[in-house]
Fold this protein.
Amino acid sequence: MKSIFTFFLFFIFTIVIAQQNTASEQVSTFTIDATQLKSSKKIWLYLPKSYASSTKRYPVIYMHDAQNLFDAKTSYAGEWNIDETLDSIHAQVIIIGIEHGGDKRMEELTPFKHEKYGGGNANNYLDFIVTTLKPYVDKTYRTKTSSKNTAIFGSSLGGLVSFYAALQYPEVFGKVGCFSPAFWFNRKEITAMTENITSFKTKVYFLCGDNEGDDDVIRDLNSIESLVNTKRCECKKWNKKVIVKRGQHNEKLWREGFKKAYLWLF
């Protein structure tokens, strides 16, 4: 756990690497007030190549830690190559990347306060996404607004808060990319919440590596995934779990896992 937590701290301040921008021309940014967080948020927007020449509507994926999604220059330890990956498969989807809050990242992405590390402001963060950001996106861009066309993706603490979003807002997020989730941070509370729901209809793609630095990642992922299965009809294949051999807790694992997760969920 300590080694994983050390990795979390790498994200506290974004380090800008001296290199050229790598984001494609389909990627742009805008800023929006986040009154729930008493701040503003920089948002990264990816539109598919077909967007400008069509009139159709597109599903949307909301993703955390936007600094690491599209551009090597703003990433800490390498980008996810989201734009290049989606372009390569001609994906018909809009990506909304939400920049993490620097030294507020841990607070924003954790549902409950940890006795040692603090945090616990995810309710306000998700309220910003659901009641401020999503309505703006749906009004401004041609989106498919239903839950089956709305996903939320993240890794590490972002994986934790993405799963929590499915518990809190099942009517909003019908699909989740849950990569290397830091369930240990709020293990007791997340387990209790999952136990107490009557049904779980959100599709979830669970991903982690078998060399992430702590066995808790796999153990917690297996535990939550098994618990989710007790809340589903056995006839529905709404979960997929992938454990990557020699996979580590880093952008490489998540970058290489994104394409398969997207194709399975959509």
Q: What stands out?
A: The longest helix spans residues 122-140. Residues 9-18 have pLDDT under 50 and may be disordered.
